[in-house]
Amino acid sequence: MSESETQTPDRKELITEVPSALVSIRNLSLWYGAKQALDKIDFEIPRKKITAFIGPSGCGKSTLLRCLNRLNDLVDGVRMEGDILMEGSSVNDPEIDVNMLRKRVGMVFQKSNPFPKSIYENVAYGLRIHGVTSRRELDEIVERSLKQAALWDEVKDRLDDSALGMSGGQQQRLCIARALAVDPEVILLDEPCSALDPIATGHIEELMQSLKDEYTMVIVTHNMQQASRVSDYTAFLYLGELVEYKETEKLFLTPASRRTEDYITGRFG
Amino acid sequence: MDPRTTHFASRLDELTQLVLRLGGLVEEAIGRSVHALVDRDSGTARKVLESDHAIDRLELEIDHLCLELLLLQQPMAGDLRFIATAMKINSDLERIGDHAVNISERALELNEAPPMPTFIDLPLMATRAQAMVRDALDAFVRRDAELAVATIARDRELNDQMRENFTRLADHAREQPQDIDQALRLSFVTKYFERIGDMAKNVCEQVVFMASGEVIKHQRVSRTGSGEDQS
Fold it and tell me: Whole-angstrom Cα distance, residue B11 to residue B20?
């Protein structure tokens, strides 16, 4: 039932429990200086599923995504309360090696950002940083990663060409291949298709489905149709709060919160 | 922006109005078919047959609008449930119209034969079936799950009455074998009214889904994942 003006659904109706949690977000609040961006966010992200974060601009969805691999560490004046646990261990533990965390939790950004190097070197870059020097091993992983990213057939004959000569959609798949090369557990995608045409978007969405059996993925998207197409679970955030989180089909067909209903039906936002 | 001022909201209103117009035509068809039967008025029966084209045309128009809204607006949540409901009840209402045609066709045949003594209460069945259709449409317009559930419960009255009529018609046919053709035709008519009740029930089940998101039809199947359909 939709909430009426007098009756607010309880947490159980709004925030679902997931079958196999990989990431637990525990009562997480975050401030940029005096401005609060996240307010007591508390839910779990399931293993080997695609979870979408949706909400209007400024709702905190990208901020939340960036907490998962501590990208907010790079922003001045950020203060946080609460915690994020991955397999039970805090990602904010001062002892943790942030580079290792970012290897476990790879990221693909809105604007594809290949390095001004060859296609091969873009994929091999992370491996070299993590100490892989064997040419044979590098070749194997580069090929496997490009195949996983559904790019191999398009680039296998021009691996030494500059990545900057690729199309936007290919560059974005190359960035996914680069993230896959270091064997992450989680892939974060921050509006990965917002600069792509429908065909290139389709390739990325297909790619996400093909990677789902191996990786946990979290996508931030402005496009609700995309969230409904690709994700298994969807979280709706509004003004820094987690309003509703459940199986995607349930959220888009029978949301429990009036705010979710109003947002996804275009009443506001 | 107030959603009532948006283009999409006005198209949804248009869909509601079309469904209501279809419901109105269907109710009228039932009323006329009963009149044709009870008052032995073949002219009215023929009017029901002729007016079925208008019902069919409206069904196509509603289907087209629903597909257009699904395609162009990609609705979500309550809007999606509303359009999906309109699509489904559209075909239920058209089927009710078909049953009114069937009743009128039987009326035309019965009116050719001498009148039989009145021993089954067809007007009462007709009134109950019509009331169920009207309340189902009210529940749709008001998005009223409670009214829909209450209306579903009344389907049993029609089922009971159908069984009672069958028994009486069979008894009469045994006692007066010369009336067997008419008794058979009246059995069909009583079955059509019972089917109209079933269609109204389908509409109400769909209204409950639209209003609350809860699926109440085929409950035995959905609870256990197997078993027989309880339609």
Answer: 14
User: Could you tell me which chain A residue has the CA closest to the CA of B81?
Assistant: A253
Segment A37-84, tens digit of pLDDT: 999 999 999 999 999 999 999 999 999 999 999 998 888 899 999 999
Query: Are residues B78 and A252, on separate chains, in Cβ contact within 8 Å?
Result: no
Look up residue B196 and give its two tokens. Answer: 């109209």
Greatest Cα-to-Cα distance within chain A, rounded to the nearest angstrom: 66
pLDDT at res. B228: 45
Which value, to the nearest 10 degrees, does the dihedral of the CA atoms of residues B17, B19, B24, B29 take?
Answer: 150
- For residues A41 and A28, give the distance between their C-alpha atoms in angstroms, rounded to a whole number: 5
Show the CA angle centred on residue A209, arms to residues A136 and B82, nearest 5°: 170
CB-CB neighbors (< 8 A) of A234 in chain B: none
Inter-chain residue contact A253 with B8, CB threshold 8 Å: no
Q: Say which of B6, B8, B76 has its CB closest to residue A252.
A: B76
Domain B3-229 is in which class?
A: mainly alpha
pLDDT in tens, A241-265: 999 999 999 999 999 999 999 999 9
Is residue B80 less than 8 Å (CB to CB) from chain A? yes
